[in-house]
Amino acid sequence: AINAKSNFLATMSHEIRTPINAVLGYSELLALELAGPLTVEQRAQVERIRASTGHLLTLVNEVLDLAKIESGTLRVEVRESVAGEAVNSALSMVRLQAAAKGVHINEQCEGACDARYVGDRDRVRQILVNLVANAVKFTKEGGSVQVMCTVQAEPPFGRSRKSDGPHVAFQVSDTGIGIAPDQLEHIFEAFVQAESGARSPYTREQTGTGLGLAISLQLAHQMRGEITVESELGVGSTFTLYMPAADPMDSPGRL
Ligand code: ADP
User: What is the CB < 6 Å shell around ligand 1?
Assistant: First the structure.
C-alpha cells in the first residue's frame, strides 16, 4: 500500500508540474509586458500569481522528492566533489533573499573549502540551499548567517548513530529565533513546523511546507551522511550536514 501511494504521488506530482510551469511561464511573459503595458495594479497582481505559483512548484517538487524517497526510487550519485563549490552555489541562491531582509551572510565559503566529500553534488547543494534559506528565513533584520566547512575525524552524531570515519562538515549557523528544546526532535518529521508560544505568529509569517528538513535528512542518509542541529530559543541555531570525506586518510593539512 505504501508503494502504491508513493507511486501515485510520484506520477501525480510529475503531471501537475507541467501546467504549473505553464502558469509560471505565462505570468513571467505578462510581467515582461511583451503583449502590452501593465498598470501598476496589474503588475502587482501578476507578481502575486508568479510568487504563489513558484511556491506551489516548490511544494510539488518536495512531495515528488518525498514520494521517490519513500518508494525507494530516488537515486543519488556517488562521486567526489569539492565542498566549497556546493557552499558557494548555495550561497548565490539565497544572497538576494538575505539582502532583501537585511540579514548579513558570508560572501563565500569559509574554512576547509577545498575539502572533498563523496556524494551527489546536486543533492548536497539542495540540502545546503534548504539549510541556508531556513537560516535566513528565521533570522530577523540585522542578524547574521554563517556557512563554513571543516573536516572532522570523528563527527559527533550523537546516540542515534556511530560515526564511521572522517567527514566534511558543512555548518550553517544563524542568530535567528531559535527552536525550543521540545521541538528540536520533531522538526525533521514531514510537515512539521515548529510553533513556540508567542513566537508562532512570527514563525508562521514565513512561507514553507515543513518538508525541507525531512527531505534533507533522508537525502543525507541515502548518501551515508548525517544532519545534526543545536539551537537555543532567541539566540540562534546551527545545522550541520556531514558528508563522508573523499579519502579516509584525508586530514585538514592535506586538503
Ligand atoms: P519549512 O521551512 O518549509 O517550514 P523545514 O522542514 O525546512 O520546513 O523546517 C521545519 C521547521 O523547522 C520550520 O518550519 C521551523 O519552524 C524550524 N526551523 C528550521 N530551520 C530553522 C532555523 N534555522 N531557525 C529556526 N527554526 C528553524
Answer: 130, 134-135, 138, 174, 176-177, 179, 187, 193-194, 203, 208-214, 237
